[in-house]
Amino acid sequence: MNVIICKDYDEVSVKAAEIFKRQINGKPNSVLGLATGSTPIGMYNCLADMYSKGEIDFSQVTTFNLDEYYPISQDNEQSYHTFMNNNLFGKINIDASRIHIPNGETTNPAAECEAYEKEIARHGGVDLQILGIGRNGHIGFNEPGDRLNTKTHITALSSDTIDANSRFFESSDKVPTHALTMGISTIMSSKKIILLASGHSKHNAIKELLSNGITTDNPATMLKMHPDFTLICDSAAYSDIHIGIDIGGMSTKIGVVDNNEIIDRCDVEITAGQTAEDITDAMAEVCLDFAARYDVQSIGVGTPGIIAHGKVWATNLPFCGFRLADELSSRVKLPVSVENDAACAALGEQIAGAGAGAENMLLVTIGTGIGAGIIMNGKIYSGCGAAGEVGHMCIDINGIECPCGRHGCWEQYASVTALKNQTAAAAKAHPESILGKLCRESAISGKTAFKAADMGCETAREVLDNYFNYLAAGLNNLIKIFDPQTVLISGGISNEGDNLIIPLNKRLAPFSAVKIAELKNDAGIIGAAALK
Ligand code: GLP
User: What pairs with residue 97 in β-bridges?
Assistant: First the structure.
């Protein structure tokens, strides 16, 4: 198999048209196998252009199309007869009597298929066959799971193909349920085959084609057995590599992500006094380096703060209405998407971590403050740009004053900062306790109360009981609003594992799906890369 990787669809079309031109100029009475679908349209346009410039003469070629819907009338707008007339035959000097397309109007499909197969043989077989590929790897209309040694035959379309092709019809129930198609063995008897693929939706099918196996689950993989088979695809179909960036207060983590796995990474420090432009320049430098070494399709960025109308506002960073996506994109010349960092982490966990398979989930990050990423129906929910600021959900209207100006915000009771304050207060009130002793010996952290409780300290247990009650109160509110499949806890506190999860789930019963997030710092990178 030869593989030609092109930068985009236009290049795929030009390369394929050049192969056709060489074929026809080398053998003017070539027998061509033609395909429909949106992919070959660019190539047909190039061929029509070459014809108008006098570079090719189609007068002696014979054509056999791969397939046709069944039943369908030839003059139906979506018939492959109409498609071929509109996209190629109407623009070139082909002799109409040399055009062959399976007849979707026949009342005897079996006889039509047999006659079609014989007609191909009578012309000495196809010299050059062009193919597109379905998202599920179908070629012509040879669907996954079909017997692959078939000649031209009638076949039922798979639901995936009906779904994919419904874009050409008014609705999916208007897509014909069957088709007449050359079989895999008909296609394999062609002397030369080229398959065109463009766009991300074809990536999985192409990845399987490029892997070692041959399987009826991806009919295109059979083509690897052909002695003269060329795949021409653009980089979006060939590669699923994206850069994910997770901007933090102190550093920016940049990863190259291939199929949700980080394959390369680099951290860039953020220093005091840097402007938004400086930070963007530093990110761009790393991205350009990665893009020179990997076939990167796009960049996703997770940043703290609010993102609205393409602008970012972040309190602890110099982003104040900064057009981060535009600025980075203009430096790196790749598409850039920006989302909130907690939302990206939630997406990362949903794709490849503890939230895998959950269409509706929350990721609550508990550290200096509390934030959340919300996944609704499989997608990030960002409201008007600031959804997920759950740390500022009020749990006591007469409560502790928050720097945001309100009282009783959840993070004043349930963040790691709050736990440290509660630990310090209890240690002061009970200096004789183990907790009191630990607090005198070393700096108080979010871990101190857990450590003392582990050593049997009653004061520490009371601190944690009170803290879990507050944490559970806020989580309970969120669960009542969102009714999620799971709630993942990330941030510093998540290191406590079961010591945190068991008491929380006990307090939230009957809800029992609070879990620790799995991907740690990688979640934000993987989620950002998946913004595409
Ligand atoms: C249809 C055709 C195939 C074609 C496929 C992909 O099902 N029968 O020959 O390869 O669509 O079409 P597109 O190129 O529009 O993705």
Answer: none
Residues 497 and 436 in one domain: yes
Active site residue 67: yes
Cis-peptide into 510, omega within 30 deg: yes
CATH number of the CATH domain containing 256 = 3.30.420.40
Tell which residue, 143, 154, 180, 164, has the closest CA to residue 68: 180
22 and 97 co-located in one domain: yes
Is there a domain that residue 187 lies in? yes
DSSP states along 89-120: GGGS---GGGEE---TT-S-HHHHHHHHHHHH
Rounded to the nearest angstrom, the gap between the alpha carbon of residue 202 and the centroid of all alpha carbons in its chain is 12
Contacts of 415 (CB under 8 A, 6+ apart): 366, 367, 368, 369, 370, 391
Q: Which pairing describes strands 251-258 and 241-247: parallel, antiparallel, or unpaired?
A: antiparallel
In a domain, residue 526? The reply is no
| 157 CA to centre of ligand 1 in angstroms | 12
| Band of pLDDT at residue 25, cut at 50, 70 and 90 | very high
Q: Is the pLDDT of residue 144 over 70?
A: yes
Provide the percentage of residues in the chain whose pLDDT is more than 70: 99
Task: Please tell me the distance from the alpha carbon of residue 87 to that of residue 222, in angstroms, as a whole number.
Answer: 28
* Ligand 1 atom nearest residue 161's Cα: 7
pLDDT digits (tens, 9 = 90+) for 155-182: 999 998 999 889 999 888 999 999 999 9
Last residue of a domain, one of 205, 238, 271: 238
| Residue 15, token pair as written in the block | 């390369």
Res. 145 pLDDT band, cuts 50 70 90:
confident
Which residue owns the Cα nearest ligand 1 atom 13? 37
Rounded to the nearest angstrom, the distance between the alpha carbon of 106 and the centre of ligand 1 is 22
Annotation marks residue 349 as catalytic? no
Set 112, 143, 146, 246: catalytic member: 143
Q: Is 528 a member of any domain? A: no
Same domain, 324 and 411: no
Select from 371, 457, 385, 369 the least CA-distant residue to 419. Answer: 369
38 lines ligand 1 (CB under 6 A): yes
The pTM score is: 0.69
Residues shown for the chain: 532
Token pair of 444 as six digits: 């108080």
Question: Which atom belonging to ligand 1 lies closest to the Cα atom of 133?
Answer: 10
Q: Which domain holds residue 469?
A: 358-516
Same domain, 19 and 108: yes
Q: What are phi and psi of 474, to 5 degrees?
A: -70, -45
User: What number of CA atoms fall less than 13 Å from residue 166's CA on the CB side?
Assistant: 13
Cα–ligand 1 centroid distance for 134 (angstroms): 5
- pLDDT for 470 beyond 80: yes
Query: Per residue in 490-530, pLDDT tens?
Result: 998 999 999 999 999 999 999 999 999 999 989 999 999 99
Among candidate residues 159, 494, 190, 147, the one with its CA nearest the CA of residue 354: 494
